[in-house]
Specification:
515 residues; alpha+beta; Herpes Virus-1; seven-stranded mixed sheet; five-stranded mixed sheet; 18 helices; 23 strands; 40% helix; binds adenosine-5'-triphosphate
């Protein structure tokens, strides 16, 4: 575990050192849980967004996009339930003055029981060697059973307290489990209070005329309130989807794990409107489609899993998360929810407008049901970084840090180096870039030895490097180096585009999922 934490720390500093992610307003010591994307980060982020957008809007004739405003009429959030129920239970430690999410403290405690069980299993595995039967051990070993029993009892009590919205019981669980504040080490806890996660601001120039509005905590509502506009003007027939990428804001109490949980972040959401009664089939279909999208990146199927929700929001009839294996465990990257007709019905009720679909096949009107796929751009970015970061020992005894990014997502696709700064080599290198820059992102580098330039390009995940040397001036060939194998071979300048373009384009990924 400690080793994994080390790797994570290295990834965070790599992100900063190579212009991927900076703490926001760093010269003023940063702002909690807010980050800026640097020169390489913005390219990678744009590529992730493009991959998602094109997989939705280009590959599905019945999905269109929109770009709604961040500010929305305040009644939107009353209708959606966010004003009354978008809360986290928080608790303070009186000694350290630190604030925690009560549910997270208890979840961490559950994870501790899991760790204890896992430790027993690993110890026994070492002891029994080949003959070890994990299943049998887990179901018969007294110590494991004791931990498991405590864990199950805690889980049941915790779920009930959450379902009943019983804040006193949450506090009592924290006390009974002897959970201490990680900073002060004490159990001097305050009451548990509900804390709304929406940021408020005011619209209007004078204090009297001002009215409170919210920064949207999710992009989905911008889609719901535009359902009729898009359906009518696009003459859309059910089933159809509306996709959107945009910023969302949540006043997260505990900001942890770098860009995993931010106060300002970006979502890519798609709401798919279907005929009532067909929603669970579509839910299954979207689960598969979205998993295929993730797996086309080639990070290995074993690094993803579905986590189906036991506890459903009152309006949902199915929900699952796609989790990715981060250095700090399997974590949610995307949510897929069957939200029934809750949102559209609520907006109909609060706005007084009829928000329905006239089905020309059955001649009836009804409120469509909705399947939502919702993924955080920043969490996706983090999963890509975590999987791609790699420290390698080389045969010559040196080591290198290389970002093995999928070529289609890499910020820079091709770096072009003149071997030396004379004999017309720089001009020749610039000529190559001038030609290829229309097709993909190229970078020119002439500083330092070639070896150092390769390392810099490895560190930002650039899949191809080209070196222009004396021979180039004679026969128009260059050496082309592959980031992952580090192999080099001579190719004709005229062939560069056809060799590289296919491999670095988003299309190459889209083709994998559209078989
Ligand atoms: P969590 O349980 O981790 O708080 P959530 O279930 O509240 O997440 P959703 O409301 O389903 O998340 O939002 C959809 C997606 O938006 C998440 O899967 C995640 O990728 C992203 N997301 C949500 N909150 C944040 C945040 N604070 N920072 C970064 N990404 C976020």
């Amino acid at each position: 575990m400690a080793q994994q934490e080390d790797v994570f720390k290295k990834i965070v500093s790599h992100c900063k050192e190579y212009g991927f992610v900076f703490p926001s307003s760093e010269i003023y010591d940063g702002l909690g849980a807010v980050y800026d994307y640097g020169q390489n980060g913005v390219e990678l982020k744009n590529n992730i967004k493009q991959y998602w957008w094109q997989s939705m809007v280009l590959l599905h004739e019945n999905i269109v996009g929109i770009d709604a405003a961040i500010f929305m009429h305040p009644t939107t959030w009353k209708a959606s339930g966010h004003v009354d129920a978008f809360n986290d239970p928080l608790i303070d430690n009186r000694d350290s003055k630190k604030r925690y999410r009560a549910d997270v403290l208890i979840e961490d405690q559950l994870a501790k029981y899991d760790e204890k069980i896992q430790k027993e299993v690993e110890k026994a595995r070492k002891r029994f060697g080949e003959a070890f039967d994990e299943e049998q051990f887990r179901t018969t070993n007294a110590r494991v059973l004791e931990h498991q029993q405590k864990r199950d009892a805690l889980h049941e009590r915790f779920s009930k307290a959450l379902n009943d919205n019983n804040l006193e019981e949450l506090r009592q669980i924290i006390l009974d489990e002897g959970i201490v504040c990680p900073i002060s080490g004490t159990r001097n806890w305050t009451e548990v209070r509900q804390f709304n996660l929406m940021f408020k601001t005011e619209v209007g120039s004078t204090a009297d005329g001002a009215s409170t509005i919210y920064l949207r905590p999710e992009t989905a509502q911008g889609i719901f309130v535009n359902y009729l506009n898009v359906q009518k003007t696009g003459r859309m027939k059910l089933p159809f989807g509306i996709a959107q990428i945009g910023k969302a804001f949540r006043n997260e109490i505990v900001a942890r794990q770098f860009i995993f949980r931010m106060r300002e972040f970006e979502q890519m959401e798609m709401q798919f409107f279907v005929k009532p009664g067909t929603e669970l089939d579509w839910f299954q279909k979207w689960k598969q489609t979205r998993m295929a999208w993730h797996q086309a990146l080639g990070f290995g199927a074993e690094n993803y899993r579905f986590h189906d929700h036991d506890k459903l929001a009152h309006y949902a009839n199915a929900a699952t998360d796609i989790e990715f294996h981060m250095p700090f465990g399997f974590k949610e990257v995307e949510g897929i929810h069957s939200r029934t007709n809750f949102d559209l019905s609520q907006h109909a009720k609060y706005s007084g407008k009829k928000i329905e679909y006239f089905d020309p096949e059955t001649n009836e009107s009804y409120t469509p049901f909705v399947i939502e796929t919702s993924i955080g751009v920043d969490r996706m970015f983090l999963s890509v970084m975590c999987h791609s970061y790699c420290e390698e020992q080389l045969p010559n005894g040196e080591s290198r840090v290389v970002l093995k990014l999928p070529a289609a997502l890499a910020p820079v696709k091709l770096a072009v180096f003149p071997l030396t700064k004379k004999d017309g080599l720089p001009e020749k290198a610039q000529e190559i870039i001038k030609d290829l820059r229309f097709h993909f992102n190229c970078k020119y580098e002439e500083k330092d030895q070639i070896g150092k330039r390769y390392r810099r390009m490895d560190a930002i995940g650039c899949p191809y490097c080209v070196t222009v040397d004396q021979q180039t001036m004679e026969d128009n060939t260059v050496t082309l180096r592959d980031r992952d194998t580090m192999e080099q071979h001579r190719v004709n300048i005229a062939d560069l585009r056809s060799i590289i373009e296919d491999k670095v384009s988003i299309t190459s990924l889209l083709k994998k999922i559209d078989k």
